[in-house]
Amino acid sequence: xxxxxxxxxxxxxxxxxxxxxxxxxxxxxxxxxxxxxxxxxxxxxxxxxxxxxxxxxxxxxxxxxxxxxxxxxxxxxxxxxxxxxxxxxxxxxxxxxxxxxxxxxxxxxxxxxxxxxxxxxxxxxxxxxxxxxxxxxxxxxxxxxxxxxxxxxxxxxxxxxxxxxxxxxxxxxxxxxxxxxxxxxxxxxxxxxxxxxxxxxxxxxxxxxxxxxxxxxxxxxxxxxxxxxxxx
Amino acid sequence: xxxxxxxxxxxxxxxxxxxxxxxxxxxxxxxxxxxxxxxxxxxxxxxxxxxxxxxxxxxxxxxxxxxxxxxxxxxxxxxxxxxxxxxxxxxxxxxxxxxxxxxxxxxxxxxxxxxxxxxxxxxxxxxxxxxxxxxxxxxxxxxxxxxxxxxxxxxxxxxxxxxxxxxxxxxxxxxxxxxxxxxxxxxxxxxxxxxxxxxxxxxxxxxxxxxxxxxxxxxxxxxxxxxxxxxxxxxxxxxxxxxxxxx
Lengths: 232, 247
Prior knowledge:
Chain A is an all-alpha fold. Helices cover 79% and strands 0% of the residues of chain A.
């Protein structure tokens, strides 16, 4: 019984295991902060690429699309080099802190949010363009209108970004270091327990992680469905 | 009804709406000339109904006049200083994914109306177009007729000098058509120049002051409504009025 992953997951939750809750809280905190920061920059960036025509625009779109598939370890390595003692941002002393993990996940999520929001905003612009020009709107005036009107689609985009952030392990392992009580998150803990051979615990943690992601997605789904039904 | 129309026309002749001039305007796309070259001036009280078979270039003419398209040749100009305030109502209204009233306050915000005044103006316009009960309903779930009325209300709050309407009633039922026509008369009464496309002869008879008849991308006729229907000069217009198929 003690070797059953579901039993382990359940008992971890039932016993309100303090270490587990710290890990879960840190995981959520890091991923949500990274996604929020990436949204604040990525959505306007995506909308701007959708709205403005400039030389090299095609290149930017291709780069954003390609970076959606950026291998997390490459992002981790880049952030590691930037933040390491000898790196350009070494003075900040951020390596092996939760902030470093937020930065790494931000780098991973930003292209997803920018590329997908570019696509969605461009679709919406196709529908609205004549009306916008008729109203005499400038491109910079169109941006907030488009972002607001795309809000339900962008919520789905946000979830895709959150999925990438919360599932990611390579980058946070490299820049966070999986330090017990400081930078250990769900995914790095699962890797550690697996390599230690404690498979039930690893699986139990996996189940908890999966449940959390499901709950967040279900919540967002319900919110957007209700809103969609009202707004049409 | 006749005296009412006469009164309207008298009112708008006193203060003629902004004049529109097309000088040798042509529009081509991918090497194909879709409209013109054509020259005409709209100086009368209107409303001007642009008529003609499908593909005659009615929508392109409207878009060139409104500035949604740029002519590949020739010039579009207006009387008076600078560009007049314009609005356009499309065949399929483009409404934002927000409540009816928010669609109007958005247009007012774009138009630099002070924040405090927006909601009041928006609610007044909704009342004028019979949409008060729908103020907080999402614009996207309104019926087709309600959506077109909302598009008219949006144009109304902008107080345009010129209003373009591109087949505004072609997807509507008779009651909704009547509401749109009433609205068009109200705009006209306010001194707004009306330029509207339609392929409905009866609608043109009901609304038009003058008719601009297009066929094959060329202007075949520009006359007052009565003479257009009683003695059309071009053979295309004669065929169109007779209900024949016009190439």
